[in-house]
Design brief:
single chain, alpha+beta, Arc Repressor Mutant, subunit A, 40% helix, 10-stranded mixed sheet, 476 residues
């Protein structure tokens, strides 16, 4: 494998979250009842004329500006001609020679260091319908026809399946931060086709490429690319050659299979869309969009490290979604202990979210309650161990830590006399272990601590237990 250089380029389609479709007034909700959101325009009826959705253009520009791309203030729509049963017009309104955007960079971080994935073109276009193949029939739902799509094409600079995975993860993160798309691959809101080829080290010409389709998750893209790379290497090593074709990824079998020969640009017979004027954008309008951009993931990571003094790894996890980042910031601000807030969110809170399959804003534990729990530990009201039980009850009931602590009598014991009594009882009941301790088995100290905590039903302040126990043992 070291003899070959891997060349990967990705085409990503992002469904934009607009109220209506890109060229008509139909509701942009393809999950509604089949064929309930369609009209003569999105069905391509004779005489029906498209009208461009201003919001779709705005959302597309937000992405282009966010990744440092260049916006063409005058772009042109084109007809891309091909036949699929779920493409009622027999062509797709897209962009070709003069797209809305070009260039831009997506930065990714991996164990091998940081990489910059250069973007080639960023196009605005419409989606096709969706076919459903059953055992004895095929059905078509046209609700998706006319859904606004942002097509993002990378330069062929990705060099591994893992880089492709990290790139797609960052794309999804950015569109979610910008609030232009849900980025949900399982629902088709973000889709990816991949072109992959190999060339021997030192070779300048690109090898024959294959296109991969039907990958329904970011991890699926990584698996499909890994399989296809191995397949092409095996072919070349056996003296064979790679065909230029489109291959489908079969998730259940873990392999790709031939679908059809790959179309080239001339096959689509692009020409300017006669029913739409060139799109012209003013500098003032674009400046307003630029000013309204939110803080992006990489910017938030840098700020979290700088302002909250947390490790870059923590910052990366906490900024994985905009909602989680907001949850952390509010919690840290309320409790004044960012590292403790980070630890609790990355362990207990994220576990609860995963188990319940819920988002931070849907939790029964608002930031103010988590901040109260953290402060209850810090001021000695409860121990960290008890807090882990309390946070589970908080998630189930929505109650505050104070309500749970009061109802269950969980206040931590900080009275030295009470703890001293418990220590004396433990030592008197464990004469044999005490002798072994003084004979050199110092690890029994932890055993004694555990016994004291059991005596106090886990309520004793662990710091005081350790100090008092150590003093008692040293005084014997």
């Amino acid at each position: 494998m070291n003899e070959y250089e891997i060349i990967i380029g990705l085409e990503i389609h992002v469904q934009l979250q607009t109220e209506t479709k890109i060229f008509c007034g139909c509701k942009n909700d393809y999950e509604a009842g089949p064929n309930t959101n369609s009209c003569p325009v999105c069905l391509g009826m004779p005489g029906a004329l498209p009208v461009l959705n201003r919001k779709a253009v705005e959302l597309a520009c937000r992405f282009i500006l966010a990744v440092g791309g260049e916006i063409n203030t005058r772009s042109i729509f084109a007809r891309k001609n091909y036949f699929y049963p779920d493409l009622p017009k027999g062509y797709q309104i897209s962009q070709h020679e003069r797209p809305l955007g070009k260039g831009g960079v997506i930065r990714i971080e991996s164990g091998e260091g940081n990489s910059e994935i250069m973007l080639q073109g960023i196009h605005l276009e419409e989606d096709a319908g969706k076919s459903f193949h059953l055992a004895d029939s095929s059905n078509i739902d046209f609700n998706r026809c006319g859904t606004p799509l942002l097509e993002i094409v990378t330069m062929p600079v990705i060099r591994s399946a893992q880089e492709a995975y990290l790139f797609l993860h960052r794309i999804r993160q950015i569109v979610q931060y910008l609030e232009i798309s849900s980025g949900d691959m399982e629902k088709g809101a973000l889709r990816c086709d991949a072109n992959v080829s190999l060339r021997r080290e030192g070779q300048h010409e690109y090898g024959i490429r294959t296109e991969l389709k039907n990958m329904n998750s970011i991890r699926g893209v990584e698996k499909a690319l890994s399989y296809e790379i191995e397949r092409q290497i095996s072919l070349l090593e056996q003296g064979g050659f790679v065909l230029q074709e489109t291959r489908l990824w079969d998730e259940s079998k873990g392999r790709t299979a031939t679908m059809r020969t790959k179309e080239e640009s001339p096959d689509y017979r692009y020409f300017p869309e006669p029913d739409l004027q060139p799109l012209e954008l003013s500098g003032a309008w674009l400046e307003d969009i630029m000013q309204g951009l939110p803080e992006l993931p990489h910017q938030k990571i840098d700020r979290f490290v700088r302002e909250y003094q947390i490790p870059p790894y923590d910052a990366g996890v906490l900024t994985s979604t905009r909602q989680l980042a907001d949850y952390f910031e509010e919690t840290a601000g309320l409790c004044g202990k960012p590292k403790q807030a980070s630890n609790w969110i990355m362990t207990e809170i994220m576990k609860i979210m995963k188990d319940a399959k819920t988002a931070p804003e849907e939790l029964n534990i608002p930031p103010r309650n988590l901040a109260e729990l953290i402060n209850s530990i810090e001021n000695g009201t409860i121990s960290g161990k008890i807090a882990k039980d309390i946070v589970v009850e908080m998630a189930a009931s929505g109650k505050t830590p104070g309500e749970i602590i009061g109802a269950r009598g969980l206040e931590q014991i900080t009275d030295k006399k009470v703890i001293e009594q418990a220590v004396e009882q433990v030592l008197s009941e464990n004469a044999e272990n005490l002798k072994r301790y003084f004979d050199g088995q110092q690890q029994l100290f932890g055993y004694f601590v555990g016994q004291v905590m059991m005596k106090t039903e886990g309520k004793a302040n662990p710091h005081l237990v350790n100090k008092i126990l150590k003093d008692k043992l040293n005084g014997r």
